[in-house]
Write a structure and sequence with these properties.
6-stranded mixed β-sheet, mainly beta
Length: 207
C-alpha cells in the first residue's frame, strides 16, 4: 500500500489479522496519525508496539514509536512517518494486529475474525454462503459471504474443505460465487454457534 512504511525484516504474520481500527487522518504537522478503534478501547490498541497498516490482502508491519489516548480515539507516531503529507496518505487504512497476540476470549465469546469461514444459515434452514470477511462501516460490522461455498475449519486458505463446494454448484439455489452482505447486528443475527461454525440469521435467501 502506497505511503505505508515497512518494518524492514518483518514478514507477513502466519495467522490471521484482526482489524482494530481505522486511520482517520493526520494529527499535527510531524507525521502523527489519528486512529478510531473498532469496538476496542483505545488503550487496548495502544499497548501494541507493532501495527499492521493497510487493507484486505495488502498489509505492512509498522513499529509504533509513540501512542497516546485522547478520549475515545488514539493518536500515534509511526516509524518512518515524519511528515503530515505521509500521515494524510494513510487516511482510510485499517490498523490490525495478529489474532495470536490477543487474549483468548472467554467461553461463548469470539473475535469478529473468528467468524471468517463459518457458514451462514437462515431461519428456513437455507445456507446463504460462507463468510469471507467481516468489515466495519463505522456504524456496525458487516458480514461478507459467498454463496456456493461450504464452511471450513481454516479460513486462511480461502478454499472449501470438501469437494461438494468445489464443483461450483449453487447452495440452496443461489448462484455459486455470488456475494451477499448482511449487517452483523441483533436485528438480523440470531446467534453464533462456534462448535458448528455456523451463524444463524433472520435473512431471506432472495434478499
Amino acid at each position: 500500500m502506497n505511503g505505508v512504511p515497512t518494518q524492514g525484516e518483518c514478514e507477513q504474520p502466519q495467522g490471521r489479522l484482526v482489524s482494530m481500527g481505522r486511520v482517520q487522518g493526520a494529527f499535527g504537522v510531524q507525521g502523527w496519525i489519528r486512529v478510531e478503534p473498532f469496538g476496542e478501547t483505545p488503550a487496548g490498541l495502544a499497548r501494541f508496539d507493532t501495527w499492521w497498516i493497510g487493507a484486505q490482502g495488502s498489509w505492512r508491519a509498522v513499529r509504533v514509536a509513540q501512542a497516546q489516548v485522547q478520549g475515545r480515539r488514539l493518536v500515534a507516531q509511526l516509524d518512518g512517518v515524519s511528515q503530515r503529507e505521509t500521515a494524510t496518505a494513510l487516511r482510510g487504512a485499517e490498523v490490525a494486529v495478529p489474532r495470536a497476540a490477543l487474549p483468548e476470549p472467554g467461553p461463548g465469546e469470539y473475535y469478529q475474525v473468528d467468524l471468517v469461514g463459518m457458514q451462514v444459515v437462515n431461519r428456513a434452514g437455507e445456507r446463504l454462503g460462507r463468510i469471507e470477511r467481516v468489515f466495519d462501516t463505522g456504524a456496525h460490522p458487516v458480514l461478507e459471504l459467498r454463496a456456493g461455498v461450504e464452511s471450513d475449519g481454516d479460513a486462511n486458505d480461502g478454499d472449501a474443505n470438501d469437494g461438494e463446494a468445489n464443483d461450483g454448484e449453487a447452495i440452496d439455489g443461489e448462484a455459486a460465487g455470488a456475494l451477499r452482505l448482511i449487517p452483523f447486528v441483533a436485528a438480523f443475527v440470531d446467534g453464533v454457534d462456534l462448535e458448528a461454525r455456523q451463524v444463524r440469521v433472520d435473512w431471506g435467501a432472495d434478499w
